[in-house]
Amino acid sequence: MKSNYLLIKNISVIGVRAGEFGRRDPVKGANALREIDALAAQGVLKPHISARFPLEEGVQALRLMAAGGATGKIVVTM
User: Fold this and answer.
1) Which residue of 10, 25, 48, 59 could cross-link 72, Cys pair, CB 3.0 to 4.6 Å?
2) Number of structural domains, the chain?
3) Domain check: are 3 and 40 in the same one?
């Protein structure tokens, strides 16, 4: 999605740096993580996975990330 689409459609985007939130308020941070885990378990949250690599190809995963080639999560499987 192009960023100007947000402006044209008057859409708000709000982000949270989860680590900082939990550091500032550990109880609320832990509660938020539990809620996020529950939503993921229910299939409500579906993060975009841009690439998957077996552990043996972990170096390629790191290179892709370092090159800015990921548009979502990179998964390395054992």
Assistant:
1) 48
2) 2
3) yes
